[in-house]
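Morning, I've got a small favour to ask if you have a moment. It would help a lot if you went through both lines with me. I owe you a coffee for this, so here goes:
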Amino acid sequence: IYGYDNKYLKIAKYMHQKFGCTVICASNPYDGKTNLLEFDMNFIDTYCKKFKSYNIYYMGISNGAVIGANWGHLYPQIIKMLLINPPLFINWHKIKSGLSLLNETSATIIIGELDPSFKFAGMINLINNNKLNLITLSNIDHNFTNNLSDFVLLPEQYLFGL
């Protein structure tokens, strides 16, 4: 639940301390058919009723990136997505379909050159949508092994543009 070397917990604490973000970490056993964002978005909508408006910055890693790519376009509350090391060779047709439907939401896809999906990264550029940005990172594997400090800063750089 906390990720390799507690990276999800570390990133959540950092984002909360620096930006006051509320961070939700969702379990994602994914069958490729069910919209796993629906439950989480309903929960967030219920929680945020006390606010006049709110924005969601979505960060998905691996399977979480696939989920965001597939279903993120359905939720206008999501204004930016950061999709890290999505396994592009699994359900590519759904990833492509979802990302091509992004309208107001922008998405940055990050793939490390040591990740198994790196050899498929060029397929992202075949999606006709100017809301997509592909970033490849040198010497980065799927888990950001030995690069945890770089991983923790990804949302600050690519979601909040600092």
Q: What stands out?
A: The chain has a mean pLDDT of 88. Residues 7-19 form the longest helix (13 residues). The chain has five helices and four strands.
